[in-house]
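REQUEST FORM: STRUCTURE PREDICTION
Request ID: SP-0412
Submitted by: Lab K.M.
Chain count: 1
Length (residues): 154
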Amino acid sequence: MTENHGFVLAQATLDNIRRDDPAATHRTVAEDSRLVAYTRLVVARGDYGWLATIGDRTVGVAWAQFHPASSPGYGYVAAGTPELSVSVFPGWRGAGIGERLIRQVLASAADRGLSAVSLSVSPDNPARRLYSRLGFRRSADGVMMLAPQALSGT
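STATUS: Completed
RESULT:
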């Protein structure tokens, strides 16, 4: 994935927030600086990600970003801990695509020598079961964190 995938990240971010705000639009994302941050992969700071494609169609994406403390993401825990975002587009969910994407991001994190990965997820999001199965645990502030031993086991 490259910095040129902004449109895919914008669509994925929109799909992610529509769970809590069904009326959200691309404009909603574009006008909220915290959401805009998820649409920009900054390779120079270590951000990375993976696309799932079927034929020439992107069906999902997972990406890890190192948000700065001055502009934290929703799942921010520390400057050296990337925040995972994942979205499988409607019509493709439930086929294991999200799990494969997450495993790829986690394997890349381990290869990079990272000790943890965080994410933010709504309490009623069915994906929480997947995150838990992959080793993520909820912290006191509601952010889910992947334990270092789980990361090394990917």
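NOTES: Strands lie at 48-54, 57-65, 83-88, 117-119, 136-138, 144-146.
Reviewed by: T.R.
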